[in-house]
Design a protein that fits this description.
Blueprint: H1 19-29, H2 32-45, E1 49-51, H3 56-73, H4 86-98, H5 111-126, H6 135-144, H7 150-161, H8 173-176, H9 183-197, H10 209-214, H11 224-233, H12 235-239, H13 243-250, H14 254-264, E2 287-291, E3 297-301, E4 309-311, H15 313-319, H16 326-363, H17 365-370, H18 380-387, H19 391-398, E5 402-405, E6 408-411, E7 419-421, E8 427-429, H20 430-442, H21 452-461, H22 468-477, H23 483-486
Parallel strand pairs: 2-5
Antiparallel strand pairs: 1-4, 2-3, 5-6, 7-8
Length: about 500
């Protein structure tokens, strides 16, 4: 091994992304809501950025108001004859550095702009969803209405706070108790557990699945005795559809077991999950698909919800002003460059999104016209080659983006699908194979359901050569049980 402590020169080829390129890629990847937040953040940090007014008349009025506002608000910094106010500007720079989040060096906004910003913030607040009620909130509200001993209430609250998101007590009572707990304290904790288990929804506070299901039935329920027997002794047999074994052990008929099983399915194995915060966020499409007069599909980037930015004329003029100090000019240039970079990145984002989406739509016309089952196999590399960009650019462009079509709103990623070739040499997507697999299983004889090997043969009859392991993988992904579990024992 050669070791050297001397200096030597070596040429290395290395690819380094410029900051401007990095920012462009980051902006491209942002969905419309995240882009709005990014623009709002940049406007708060960069005084050179302004929202461009839509109406010319409004522009003139605002410029006039801004001029008046500047005249009133910046009298301290007016450059007088023989004085360059360097000390004042240095103080302004120091304040910007010391208080970057609170000090705004932009000229005072007009009343019209402030009113518009206030309305925008009010709209944003109105669209913020309030915190949904949690399972703990719901249980504690019920507990507060009970007339019970304070110690019992305290232990009930402790148990409630220990429940998981599905309503189960996964921690043992012994772990909640102190090491030197007396028998009386243990009895109190058990009584508190019973209090919690008496609350709604039925089944909360259970320590396992059997207890959860038993808490949801009572003697007045149909098939109570059968349900109790099945829950206590035969949950695994039900899972594997071993009804003859249950029949032999209980003496119940197959029809009676199936009727009780149907009633059992109405119980909730995760009673607390209904309070989980699983709301679906509103989707705002980044792209709109329209049909022109000639019947062609035309994609346009949605920009109504994206503020149109421009560089402040005030700071442009200030940059060329002979009274501006060197520090002031450097400050303005730095902010101007950052503002222009952002504006260019947004324009490039809209352009790239439109080109990529247009190429996707042109390729997937059958999808648009006839539905998802008519999707054509498509890879991102194909779109990248057609548009003339790198495949990672396509990946960033379609990530978390949605397009509004005459058939509905779809994520752009849904238009990409892998596939195979059938015996006729035609390309078939995996989604189409899954649809055919579902159709075959729906139409099978439930007295003799098809095994995975049988499913492979059925698909082959349709010209689809699919391996058995692939059929098994898709069946499990689709939530379809095995042939033994699909068997209907009443049709023997």
């Amino acid at each position: 091994m050669r070791m050297s402590f001397g200096l030597e020169q070596k040429m290395v080829q290395k690819q380094v992304l410029a900051p401007r390129m990095i920012q462009s890629m980051e902006i491209l990847q942002l969905p419309v809501l995240a882009l709005q937040e990014k623009i709002e953040q940049e406007m708060n940090e960069n005084p050179m950025l302004e929202v461009q007014e839509q109406e010319a008349s409004d522009q003139d009025d605002n410029r006039h108001e801004e001029a008046e506002s500047r005249a009133e608000s910046e009298q301290e910094f007016v450059v007088e004859e023989g004085k360059d106010n360097a000390d004042d500007f240095e103080r302004l720079l120091e304040m910007d550095q010391q208080y970057p989040d609170t000090f705004d060096e932009r000229p005072q906004r007009s009343s019209g702009q402030m009113e518009e910003d206030a309305e925008r913030r009010m709209d944003a607040l109105a669209n913020v969803q309030s915190r949904p009620e949690t399972l703990q909130d719901h249980l504690e509200h019920q507990l507060s209405e009970l007339s019970i001993d304070p110690q019992l209430r305290e232990w009930s609250e402790r148990i409630i706070s220990s429940l998981d998101s599905n309503g189960y007590l996964t921690t043992s009572l012994e772990d909640l108790l102190p090491a030197d707990a007396t028998d009386e304290l243990k009895e109190l904790a058990m009584e508190a557990l019973h209090v919690v288990q008496s609350l709604e929804p039925a089944g909360v506070g259970a320590r396992d699945l059997r207890e959860c299901l038993l808490l949801q039935i009572d003697p007045s329920r149909m098939f109570y005795e059968e349900l109790r027997m099945l829950i206590m002794n035969h949950l695994e047999d039900l899972r594997d559809n071993r009804l003859p074994q249950i029949q032999k052990a209980t003496g119940f008929s197959i029809e009676r077991i199936q009727a009780a099983w149907s009633e059992l399915r109405r119980l909730d194995p995760k009673p607390g999950s209904i309070y989980n915060d699983a709301h679906v966020a509103n989707v705002i499409p980044d792209l709109i698909l329209d049909v022109d007069e000639e019947g062609n599909y035309v994609v346009q980037a949605e920009d109504r919800d994206i503020p149109q930015l421009r560089i402040s004329n005030y700071y442009r003029e200030r940059l060329s002003s002979p009274t501006a100090t060197r520090e002031e000019k450097e400050f303005i240039k730095r902010k101007l460059n950052a503002a222009q970079w952002l504006i260019d990145a947004i324009i490039q984002r809209q352009n790239t999104l439109s080109r990529v989406a247009q190429a996707i739509v042109d390729y997937q016309k059958d999808f648009i016209e006839n539905g998802p089952e008519h999707i054509t196999p498509l890879k991102m590399q194909q779109i990248a080659d057609q548009v003339g960009v790198h495949v990672t650019t396509v990946s960033r462009a379609v990530d978390d983006k949605y397009i509004q079509t005459p058939r509905g709103i779809f994520p752009l990623k849904q238009f990409f699908a892998g596939g195979t070739v059938n015996e006729a040499g035609e390309e078939v997507t995996w989604d189409q194979i899954r649809l055919r697999l579902q159709e075959v299983i729906d139409n099978e004889d439930k007295a003799k359901p098809l095994s995975d090997d049988d499913l492979v043969k059925k698909l082959k009859d349709d010209g689809l050569n699919v391996a058995r392991r692939t059929v098994t993988k898709y069946r499990k992904k689709m939530g379809i049980p095995s042939s033994r579990q699909r068997r209907d024992w009443s049709k023997r």
